[in-house]
UniProtKB/TrEMBL annotation:
Name under which the protein is recorded: KOW domain-containing protein
GO process annotations (BP): ribosomal large subunit biogenesis; translation
Lineage: Eukaryota, Fungi, Fungi incertae sedis, Blastocladiomycota, Blastocladiomycetes
Species this protein is from: Allomyces macrogynus (strain ATCC 38327) (Allomyces javanicus var. macrogynus)
Family: Belongs to the eukaryotic ribosomal protein eL14 family.
CDD domains assigned to the protein according to its UniProt record, in alphabetical order: eL14
PANTHER family named among the record's database cross-references: 60S RIBOSOMAL PROTEIN L14 (PTHR11127), LARGE RIBOSOMAL SUBUNIT PROTEIN EL14 (PTHR11127:SF2)
Keywords, ordered alphabetically: Ribonucleoprotein, Ribosomal protein
UniProt keyword annotation of Metal-binding present: no
A GO CC term assigned to this protein in UniProt: cytosolic large ribosomal subunit
């Protein structure tokens, strides 16, 4: 269990997990009800829309001093002022997602080279343990 559970709150940064905006960051702008939130991603291309919590993944990042129903322009300024892109890039979830997209973009020969390098590392590790 994580050290602290991320709660649904205004200013919480989320990752859209389903639909045309899947994989993009957005910020919860308003809570509509127990099933949906109004999200906006002015710097990532996510239009202001109501999304189900089932389609969102909460992150540990919360933007400070973001009032309910903040406008898109003011939210964009807050996102840029608080360096959301830098904070997100430093998280393990972002690193894992980047690694996944990098692996998905490999050609057949690139996958072969990775397999050869892994085999060399495995053999070197086995020899080091044996010695």
């Amino acid at each position: 269990m994580p050290a602290s559970t991320p709660f649904v709150q205004v200013g919480r940064v989320v990752v859209v997990t389903y639909g045309p905006d899947a994989g993009k960051l957005a910020v919860i702008v308003d809570i509509i009800d127990h099933n949906r939130a109004l999200v906006d991603g002015p710097t990532t291309g996510v239009a202001r829309q109501a999304l189900s919590y089932k389609r969102l993944s909460l992150t540990s990042i919360v933007l400070d001093k973001v009032p309910r129903s903040i406008g898109t322009g003011a939210l964009k300024k807050a996102v840029e002022a608080q360096d959301l892109a830098g904070k997100w890039a430093a998280t393990s979830a972002a690193k894992k997602a980047n690694q996944r997209t990098l692996r998905a973009g490999l050609s057949d020969f690139d996958r072969f080279k990775v397999a050869v390098l892994k085999k060399k590392a495995r053999v070197a590790k086995a020899q080091a343990i044996k010695a």
